[in-house]
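S2.1 Query sequence (Maleylpyruvate isomerase family mycothiol-dependent enzyme)
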Amino acid sequence: MDFRAVLLDQTRIFGELIAANDPETPVPTCPDWTLKQLFRHVGRGNRWAAQIISERRVSPLDPREVHDGKPPDDPDAALAWLNEGAAQVLKSVDQVGTDTRVWTFLGPKPGGWWVRRRLHEATVHRADAALAVGADYDLPAELAADAVSEWLEIATAMAKKRHAEPLAAGVSMHLHATDDGLGPSGEWTVAHDEDGLGWSHSHGKGSVALRGPAKDLLLAVTRRRSAADVGLEVFGDTAVWDAWLDRTPY
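Output structure tokens follow.
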């Protein structure tokens, strides 16, 4: 998958969706936010990441210090601002080199790491916007599956910084995408074993298992829709799934 091209594409679709609706529309999946605030969050987030990369930062950047971090009032100019921010992420990576290590919230990583991260920030927040206005949310299965993988990487890594483990010791969770052609990339097993919490693309039974299209698994695992709402099949101990959701906020 060309993460660079898809970042630009998903950002554009996100912006056009918001531009076509009332900016003061509440976003239920992001409590207390409106579409206008969601738009600013994604747009400023791209510029924030681009600045971290271009400055080769080894420490966090205060969002208030992001260059040109506020969208213009004019709707067309605001869309241009949003799309330029995504392009800036790519330009910054090109300037410093994909492998140059910079700060991330998961520790130092190659600057190119931010491309995929910002892509899936747009992917999930586009779902927020679509749900807020009652629009369809379509996502290619390959992209949705990668978003699930990326989120599991973050959730398992962040769990080590939290007091409450999302999965108890000896417990596991399995997700299975039913889309054609995904192969191993459409299966995920998260387990808490003697080595700690981790995940893989392995097939497994799991203390709890969820089965359905990758797009719906993404909406469920990021708490945008419930498993029941999107019609996922759930097998096993549902308390394990509930605990995972409670302890892995997006």
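The first strand starts at residue 101 and ends at 102. The chain is about 50% helix and 10% strand.
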